[in-house]
From TrEMBL:
InterPro entries: BC10-like, Glyco_trans_14. One of its GO terms (cellular component) is membrane. It is found in: Membrane. The keyword Signal applies. One of its GO terms (molecular function) is glycosyltransferase activity. It comes from Cicer arietinum. It is a single-pass type II membrane protein. It comes from the Eukaryota. Residues 1-21 form the signal peptide. This is Uncharacterized protein LOC101501376. Keywords: Glycoprotein, Glycosyltransferase, Membrane, Signal, Transferase.
């Protein structure tokens, strides 16, 4: 006859499934394998950084540019971008992150079905970083031929034709495609502004608290730059793979007047990871003359002219600007008037 201790043990084993069942009904459910509210993003980022690019399966592969549109309103300038992209479908892809609370309507055409799963974005919050990372991960997963990733605002316009932009980024470096997958990232730099001498650098650094960024990011490592960039594939993977710096930059700010996480995270991360692989310059022109409340100058229809386009192309560095912002929606008509004869005449 079985002893009492054995019976007790057997009863406990048999009752274990019932205990688990009722526990699951009472306790809140925790998503697996992540317990974070960012679980969907983490799963996406994991997939994007664990894919194998089989470029050798393509015949004479042509690298593509992934255009990443970050918007919280309708893409007013889509007709201008349609002209820009015209007849080059094999050389680019489009991905759109639209704030789900903003009721953005698809402009159709080449933008149709190019919206990725998106989340709410706010100024002075890390949500804009998360949105850009979402776009990068989606583009990495979607097409192994995406080798440059250009982050674009709904207020951005092109300053040259697509062929000019494409050749500018890949100029004189498309030979030796047999080694495309191996040495691409050594031959094509990323275009991202990286500044260490901003007069408000200290205020921006301590926006989350005096020592909130330590030990991962020291003040000496902290950088600022433009929100908009063009990254090569290697650096896009660096951004999507990062967990270490992200846990610092996603902290809420105490001083919102100095809190522009999207202008800090990307230049700081890439400066720490691969400074020699970045030019340190952005290719998107922004006019900060007369800026207000953290917003750059907003161009209006009377300012649109051939002279303005030519002026916006010019840079103090050896690089030309390829895009410009910030343009009011009313600028579409005058921009379309000069598109064929000025903007796309390189």
């Amino acid at each position: 006859m079985l002893s009492s201790p054995i019976l007790v043990s057997l009863a406990l084993i048999l009752s274990l499934p019932l205990v688990l069942f009722f526990t699951q009904q009472i306790l809140p459910q925790i998503p697996f394998p992540f317990s974070s509210p960012d679980a969907e993003d983490l799963a996406l980022f994991h997939r994007a950084t664990h894919i194998t690019n089989h470029l050798s399966t393509f015949t004479n592969p042509k690298p593509k540019i992934a255009f990443l549109f970050l918007t919280n309103s309708n893409l007013t300038f889509s007709p201008l971008w349609e002209k820009f992209f015209n007849k080059n479908n094999h050389l680019f892809n489009i991905y759109i992150h639209a704030d789900p609370t903003s009721s953005v309507v698809s402009p159709g055409g080449i933008f149709q079905n190019r919206f990725i799963p998106s989340k709410i974005t706010h100024r002075a919050s890390p949500s804009l970083i998360a949105a850009a990372r979402r776009l990068l991960a989606s583009a990495l997963l979607d097409d192994p031929l995406n080798q440059y990733f250009a982050l674009i605002s709904q207020h951005c316009i092109p300053l040259f034709s697509f062929q000019f932009v494409y050749n500018y980024l890949f100029k004189n470096q498309l030979q030796s495609l047999a080694n495309f997958a191996d040495d691409f990232n050594l031959r094509y730099p990323s275009f991202i502004e990286i500044l260490s001498d901003d007069p408000n650098l200290n205020d921006r650094y301590i926006a989350r608290g005096e020592n909130a960024m330590l030990p991962e990011v020291t003040f000496e490592d902290f950088r600022v730059g433009s929100q908009f960039f063009i990254l090569n594939r290697k650096h896009a993977e660096v951004v999507v793979r990062d967990r270490r710096l992200w846990k610092k930059f996603k902290l809420p700010c105490i001083n919102e007047d100095s809190c522009y996480p999207e202008e800090h995270y990307f230049p700081t991360l890439l400066s720490m990871e691969d400074p020699n692989g970045c030019t340190g310059f952005t290719l998107t022109r922004v006019n900060w003359t007369g800026c207000w409340d953290g917003h750059p100058h907003l161009y209006t229809p009377p300012e649109v002219s051939p002279e303005l386009v030519r002026e916006l192309r010019l840079s103090n560095s050896s690089y030309s600007y390829l895009f410009a912002r910030k343009f009011s929606p009313e600028c579409l008509s005058p921009l379309m008037d000069i598109a064929d004869n000025v903007i796309f005449q390189d």
